[in-house]
Amino acid sequence: MSLYRDEAIVLRTHALGEADRIVTLLTRGHGKVRAVGKGVRRTTSRFGSRLEPFMHVDLQLSTGRSLDVVTQAETIGAYGRRVGEDYTLYTAGTVMLETAERLVEAEHEPAVPQYWLLVGAVRALATREHSPGLVLDSYLLRALAIAGWAPSFTDCARCGAPGPHHAFAPAVGGAVCGACRPPGAAAPAPETFTLLAALLGGDWPVADASHERHRVEGNGLVAAFCQFHLERRLRSLPMVERI
After folding, report:
1. How does residue 1 score in pLDDT terms, banded at 50, 70 and 90?
2. How far apart are CA 229 and CA 243, in angstroms?
3. Cβ(66)–Cβ(38) under 8 Å?
4. What is the pTM of this model?
5. For a disulfide at 167, which of 15, 181, 195, 208, Cβ 3.0-4.6 Å?
6. What is the spatial distance between Cα 105 and Cα 101, in angstroms, rounded to a whole number?
7. Which residues have CB under 8 Å from 226's CB, separation 6+?
Protein backbone atom coordinates (compact mmCIF):
# COMPACT_ATOMS: atom_id res chain seq x y z
CA MET A 1 0.00 0.00 0.00
CA SER A 2 1.38 3.41 -1.01
CA LEU A 3 0.15 6.74 0.31
CA TYR A 4 -0.06 10.07 -1.51
CA ARG A 5 -1.42 13.50 -0.70
CA ASP A 6 -3.24 15.93 -2.97
CA GLU A 7 -5.72 18.78 -3.05
CA ALA A 8 -9.10 18.06 -4.62
CA ILE A 9 -12.58 19.31 -5.26
CA VAL A 10 -15.37 16.76 -4.84
CA LEU A 11 -17.35 16.20 -8.06
CA ARG A 12 -19.91 13.63 -6.95
CA THR A 13 -20.56 10.78 -4.54
CA HIS A 14 -22.64 7.63 -4.35
CA ALA A 15 -23.28 5.09 -1.64
CA LEU A 16 -21.27 1.91 -1.29
CA GLY A 17 -22.60 -0.73 1.07
CA GLU A 18 -24.10 0.38 4.37
CA ALA A 19 -21.59 2.97 5.53
CA ASP A 20 -19.08 3.71 2.77
CA ARG A 21 -19.19 6.12 -0.13
CA ILE A 22 -17.43 6.29 -3.49
CA VAL A 23 -16.16 9.81 -4.09
CA THR A 24 -15.21 11.17 -7.51
CA LEU A 25 -12.56 13.87 -7.18
CA LEU A 26 -10.75 16.30 -9.43
CA THR A 27 -7.31 16.60 -7.89
CA ARG A 28 -4.54 19.08 -8.56
CA GLY A 29 -1.75 16.59 -9.22
CA HIS A 30 -3.47 13.31 -10.14
CA GLY A 31 -6.39 14.45 -12.30
CA LYS A 32 -9.65 12.61 -11.81
CA VAL A 33 -9.60 10.07 -8.99
CA ARG A 34 -12.28 7.72 -7.70
CA ALA A 35 -11.81 6.76 -4.07
CA VAL A 36 -13.65 5.06 -1.23
CA GLY A 37 -14.46 6.96 1.92
CA LYS A 38 -14.80 4.20 4.48
CA GLY A 39 -17.50 4.72 7.09
CA VAL A 40 -18.20 8.30 6.02
CA ARG A 41 -21.98 7.78 6.06
CA ARG A 42 -21.91 7.05 9.78
CA THR A 43 -22.73 9.94 12.11
CA THR A 44 -19.47 9.25 13.96
CA SER A 45 -17.32 9.72 10.84
CA ARG A 46 -14.46 12.16 11.35
CA PHE A 47 -14.52 13.56 7.82
CA GLY A 48 -17.77 12.50 6.14
CA SER A 49 -18.99 16.08 5.76
CA ARG A 50 -15.75 17.03 4.01
CA LEU A 51 -16.38 14.54 1.21
CA GLU A 52 -19.48 16.18 -0.23
CA PRO A 53 -19.84 17.82 -3.66
CA PHE A 54 -18.30 21.30 -3.97
CA MET A 55 -15.95 20.79 -1.03
CA HIS A 56 -12.32 21.82 -1.59
CA VAL A 57 -10.17 19.51 0.49
CA ASP A 58 -6.63 18.38 1.26
CA LEU A 59 -6.59 14.59 1.17
CA GLN A 60 -4.35 11.69 2.00
CA LEU A 61 -5.16 8.59 -0.04
CA SER A 62 -3.86 5.05 -0.24
CA THR A 63 -3.55 3.37 -3.62
CA GLY A 64 -5.92 0.46 -4.19
CA ARG A 65 -6.38 -2.11 -6.94
CA SER A 66 -9.38 -0.45 -8.56
CA LEU A 67 -10.32 2.36 -6.18
CA ASP A 68 -8.08 4.40 -3.91
CA VAL A 69 -9.03 4.91 -0.26
CA VAL A 70 -9.33 8.24 1.55
CA THR A 71 -7.42 8.03 4.83
CA GLN A 72 -7.39 11.72 5.84
CA ALA A 73 -9.35 14.81 4.80
CA GLU A 74 -8.87 18.45 5.78
CA THR A 75 -11.04 21.34 4.58
CA ILE A 76 -9.51 24.05 2.40
CA GLY A 77 -12.75 25.65 1.21
CA ALA A 78 -16.08 24.74 2.83
CA TYR A 79 -18.25 25.51 -0.20
CA GLY A 80 -20.66 22.59 0.02
CA ARG A 81 -23.19 24.11 2.43
CA ARG A 82 -23.07 27.62 0.95
CA VAL A 83 -23.73 26.34 -2.56
CA GLY A 84 -26.14 23.60 -1.53
CA GLU A 85 -28.52 25.80 0.46
CA ASP A 86 -29.29 28.10 -2.50
CA TYR A 87 -31.11 26.53 -5.46
CA THR A 88 -29.70 28.97 -8.03
CA LEU A 89 -26.13 28.42 -6.86
CA TYR A 90 -26.63 24.66 -6.57
CA THR A 91 -27.96 24.14 -10.08
CA ALA A 92 -25.22 26.30 -11.63
CA GLY A 93 -22.58 24.51 -9.60
CA THR A 94 -23.90 21.07 -10.52
CA VAL A 95 -23.43 21.90 -14.21
CA MET A 96 -19.82 22.89 -13.48
CA LEU A 97 -19.08 19.64 -11.68
CA GLU A 98 -20.68 17.55 -14.42
CA THR A 99 -18.77 19.45 -17.11
CA ALA A 100 -15.45 19.01 -15.32
CA GLU A 101 -16.02 15.28 -14.99
CA ARG A 102 -16.96 15.06 -18.68
CA LEU A 103 -13.92 17.01 -19.88
CA VAL A 104 -11.41 15.16 -17.68
CA GLU A 105 -12.14 11.63 -18.85
CA ALA A 106 -8.98 9.68 -18.02
CA GLU A 107 -8.26 8.91 -14.39
CA HIS A 108 -4.91 9.71 -12.73
CA GLU A 109 -3.82 12.02 -15.56
CA PRO A 110 -3.07 15.57 -14.34
CA ALA A 111 -5.45 18.28 -15.57
CA VAL A 112 -4.09 21.23 -13.62
CA PRO A 113 -5.72 24.08 -15.62
CA GLN A 114 -9.14 22.42 -15.36
CA TYR A 115 -8.64 21.90 -11.64
CA TRP A 116 -7.78 25.54 -10.90
CA LEU A 117 -10.55 26.83 -13.15
CA LEU A 118 -13.14 24.72 -11.33
CA VAL A 119 -11.86 25.69 -7.87
CA GLY A 120 -12.06 29.37 -8.79
CA ALA A 121 -15.55 29.03 -10.28
CA VAL A 122 -16.96 27.19 -7.25
CA ARG A 123 -15.37 29.74 -4.93
CA ALA A 124 -16.92 32.58 -6.94
CA LEU A 125 -20.33 30.90 -6.67
CA ALA A 126 -20.07 30.32 -2.94
CA THR A 127 -18.92 33.86 -2.20
CA ARG A 128 -21.46 35.40 -4.62
CA GLU A 129 -18.80 37.51 -6.30
CA HIS A 130 -20.87 37.73 -9.51
CA SER A 131 -24.24 36.61 -10.85
CA PRO A 132 -24.40 32.79 -10.78
CA GLY A 133 -25.42 32.68 -14.44
CA LEU A 134 -22.40 34.74 -15.45
CA VAL A 135 -20.05 32.59 -13.39
CA LEU A 136 -21.47 29.44 -14.98
CA ASP A 137 -21.23 30.73 -18.54
CA SER A 138 -17.70 32.01 -17.96
CA TYR A 139 -16.69 28.64 -16.54
CA LEU A 140 -18.20 26.71 -19.45
CA LEU A 141 -16.51 28.88 -22.08
CA ARG A 142 -13.12 28.76 -20.39
CA ALA A 143 -13.29 25.03 -19.61
CA LEU A 144 -14.04 24.29 -23.27
CA ALA A 145 -11.22 26.61 -24.34
CA ILE A 146 -8.77 24.70 -22.13
CA ALA A 147 -10.03 21.46 -23.69
CA GLY A 148 -9.25 22.81 -27.17
CA TRP A 149 -12.60 24.28 -28.22
CA ALA A 150 -12.05 28.00 -27.77
CA PRO A 151 -14.93 29.93 -29.38
CA SER A 152 -14.44 33.07 -31.44
CA PHE A 153 -16.62 36.08 -30.74
CA THR A 154 -14.98 38.57 -33.11
CA ASP A 155 -13.21 37.11 -36.16
CA CYS A 156 -14.93 34.47 -38.30
CA ALA A 157 -14.37 31.03 -36.78
CA ARG A 158 -14.23 29.41 -40.23
CA CYS A 159 -12.23 31.72 -42.51
CA GLY A 160 -10.70 34.16 -40.02
CA ALA A 161 -12.22 37.26 -41.61
CA PRO A 162 -11.93 40.19 -39.17
CA GLY A 163 -15.06 40.98 -37.22
CA PRO A 164 -17.29 41.98 -35.70
CA HIS A 165 -19.78 39.65 -37.36
CA HIS A 166 -23.50 39.19 -36.83
CA ALA A 167 -24.03 35.41 -36.74
CA PHE A 168 -23.11 32.62 -34.33
CA ALA A 169 -22.84 28.92 -35.23
CA PRO A 170 -21.79 26.47 -32.47
CA ALA A 171 -20.81 23.76 -34.97
CA VAL A 172 -18.44 26.13 -36.76
CA GLY A 173 -16.83 27.50 -33.60
CA GLY A 174 -18.56 30.77 -32.82
CA ALA A 175 -18.94 33.99 -34.80
CA VAL A 176 -19.17 33.58 -38.59
CA CYS A 177 -19.10 36.05 -41.46
CA GLY A 178 -21.86 36.34 -44.05
CA ALA A 179 -20.02 34.11 -46.55
CA CYS A 180 -19.45 31.31 -44.01
CA ARG A 181 -22.78 31.54 -42.22
CA PRO A 182 -24.54 28.14 -42.27
CA PRO A 183 -28.33 27.75 -42.37
CA GLY A 184 -29.92 28.11 -38.95
CA ALA A 185 -27.12 30.22 -37.45
CA ALA A 186 -28.21 32.53 -34.63
CA ALA A 187 -28.05 36.31 -34.99
CA PRO A 188 -27.28 37.65 -31.48
CA ALA A 189 -27.07 41.32 -30.59
CA PRO A 190 -23.62 42.96 -30.74
CA GLU A 191 -23.83 43.47 -26.97
CA THR A 192 -24.22 39.72 -26.52
CA PHE A 193 -21.01 39.10 -28.43
CA THR A 194 -19.31 41.67 -26.20
CA LEU A 195 -20.60 39.93 -23.08
CA LEU A 196 -19.47 36.48 -24.23
CA ALA A 197 -16.01 37.77 -25.11
CA ALA A 198 -15.79 39.34 -21.65
CA LEU A 199 -16.80 36.06 -19.97
CA LEU A 200 -14.21 34.12 -21.95
CA GLY A 201 -11.50 36.66 -21.19
CA GLY A 202 -12.42 37.21 -17.53
CA ASP A 203 -13.32 40.88 -18.01
CA TRP A 204 -15.72 41.05 -15.08
CA PRO A 205 -16.42 44.83 -15.08
CA VAL A 206 -17.85 44.47 -18.60
CA ALA A 207 -19.72 41.26 -17.76
CA ASP A 208 -21.22 42.63 -14.53
CA ALA A 209 -22.47 45.75 -16.36
CA SER A 210 -24.30 43.73 -19.04
CA HIS A 211 -28.07 43.92 -19.52
CA GLU A 212 -30.30 41.00 -18.54
CA ARG A 213 -31.60 40.40 -22.08
CA HIS A 214 -28.05 39.96 -23.36
CA ARG A 215 -27.27 37.56 -20.51
CA VAL A 216 -30.31 35.46 -21.44
CA GLU A 217 -29.36 35.41 -25.10
CA GLY A 218 -25.74 34.64 -24.22
CA ASN A 219 -26.50 31.69 -21.95
CA GLY A 220 -28.52 30.07 -24.72
CA LEU A 221 -25.56 30.36 -27.07
CA VAL A 222 -23.16 29.04 -24.43
CA ALA A 223 -25.42 26.04 -23.75
CA ALA A 224 -25.66 25.25 -27.47
CA PHE A 225 -21.89 25.59 -27.95
CA CYS A 226 -21.11 23.47 -24.90
CA GLN A 227 -23.49 20.64 -25.70
CA PHE A 228 -22.39 20.48 -29.34
CA HIS A 229 -18.75 19.98 -28.42
CA LEU A 230 -19.42 17.64 -25.51
CA GLU A 231 -21.55 15.57 -27.93
CA ARG A 232 -24.02 14.63 -25.20
CA ARG A 233 -26.50 16.70 -23.23
CA LEU A 234 -25.48 17.82 -19.79
CA ARG A 235 -28.15 16.25 -17.62
CA SER A 236 -28.01 19.04 -15.06
CA LEU A 237 -28.21 21.96 -17.51
CA PRO A 238 -32.04 22.04 -17.93
CA MET A 239 -32.39 22.49 -14.15
CA VAL A 240 -30.38 25.72 -14.05
CA GLU A 241 -32.44 28.59 -12.73
CA ARG A 242 -31.74 31.74 -14.72
CA ILE A 243 -32.77 34.99 -13.04
Report:
1. low
2. 26
3. no
4. 0.94
5. 181
6. 7
7. 99, 140, 144, 234, 237
